[in-house]
Write a structure and sequence with these properties.
mainly alpha; Citrate Synthase, domain 1; 2 domains; 3-stranded antiparallel beta sheet; globular
């Protein structure tokens, strides 16, 4: 019988999971049965707890979880030293990958794969990702690192460590929402990579580092950075038509549009569009939002109307606009995505460990004559 295969594993069901659900035809995304639009109104800590523990936290459970994360935010002097050895021209993702790898060496639970030890290691990574990313950004710009503030939420604390001043209430709320929207997305490439590594019974740090490596790619998390650079390249609303039509005529990819799973508007993109408009209005500067909205209008005309396979905005499009308004440099964009996604990776790794089977697909061999 001829072997069948799906290029890129498209629509292949590889495993069972209770973490997130996607309906690409209807534009639905749920975490453990909760719609993403409703979850986006909560705190990141609530959603992180729910993803990892499998239930929504009670008041005391949430307080204990949040307090634990806040206590774990600081990183050691030796980790700072490793970060300072990094090339300052690299993306923050590269520094994050290197620093997390070093930090794993110092973890007393490094070679303990018990559920309790993996949860402890996961909590440390959730708490310390923001510290590493913000600190690297400041070091590369010749600024002193800023200690985490235990009074601030996950999102507000990151912006404070990054910029050196407390964010506005809207900025804090927007970044919390960003982390929630980024937290999980079923078997995306980085999550599948993390689960594949976990299935070998390697340590959870290795699984997360594998996820970081996959997330960096421009066809995955790296697209956010390219959206930000695209908007800068366009510059004004008047230049949008020529830019988009140039992409169409040259059959080039328009960054921030199209998705392997969604055949309609990405539900996360709808939330990001609202956030982008809110922060643009607070800043009294609509330029980037207006450019993005004009890109979407022309893209709708070219890619959706009267098309058999319409292409809509994905999560990266308006999130890139949000990051510009939050003064997040393009080379930090993918690492900020990772700050949100780490909770989903931890949840998937723990789920994989709990009912493990080595992930080992086959390849269809193509015989060639030499």
């Amino acid at each position: 019988m001829e072997d069948k295969f799906a290029k890129g594993l498209e629509n292949v069901i590889a495993l069972e999971s209770g973490i997130s659900f996607i309906d690409g035809e209807k534009g639905i995304l749920e975490y453990r049965g909760f719609d993403i639009a409703e979850l986006s109104k909560l705190s990141y800590d609530q959603v992180s707890y729910m993803l990892i523990m499998g239930k929504m936290p009670g008041e005391e459970e949430l307080e204990e979880f949040s307090d634990n994360l806040k206590e774990l935010r600081k990183i050691t002097d030796s980790a700072f030293k490793v970060m300072r050895f990094c090339n300052y021209n690299i993306e923050a993702m590269d520094a994050l990958r290197t620093t997390i790898s070093y930090m794993s060496h110092c973890d007393p639970d490094l070679n303990d794969n018990s559920p309790e030890a993996n949860l402890r290691k996961g909590m440390k990574m959730i708490a310390r990702f923001p510290t590493v990313v913000a600190s690297f950004s400041r070091v590369k710009n010749g600024l002193e690192e800023i200690e985490p503030d235990p009074e601030l939420s996950h999102g507000a604390n990151f912006l404070y460590m990054l910029r050196g001043k407390r964010p506005t209430d809207l900025e804090s709320r927007i970044l919390e929402t960003d982390f929630i929207l980024s937290a999980d997305h079923e078997l995306n490439p980085s999550t599948f990579t993390a689960r594949t590594i976990t299935s070998t019974l390697s340590d959870i740090h290795s699984s997360v580092i594998g996820g970081l490596c996959a997330l960096k790619g421009p066809l995955h998390g790296g697209a956010r950075m390219e959206v930000m650079e695209m908007v800068d390249e366009i510059g004004t609303v008047d230049e949008v038509e020529a830019f988009v039509m140039g992409k169409v005529q040259n059959h080039e990819k328009l960054m921030g549009f199209g998705h392997r799973v969604y055949k309609t508007y990405d539900p996360r993109a709808k939330v990001y569009k609202k956030l982008a408009k809110q922060i643009a209005e607070e800043r009294n500067d609509m330029l980037w939002f207006d450019i993005a909205e004009r890109i979407e209008t022309i893209a709708y005309r070219e890619f959706v109307q009267n098309k058999d396979k319409p292409i809509y905005p994905n999560v990266d499009f308006y999130s890139g606009i949000v990051y510009k308004y939050l003064d997040i440099p393009p080379k930090l964009a993918t690492a900020v995505f990772a700050i949100g996604r780490i909770s989903g990776w931890i949840a998937h790794c723990l789920e994989q460990y709990s009912d493990n089977r080595l992930i080992r697909p086959r390849a269809k061999f193509i015989r060639s004559k030499l």
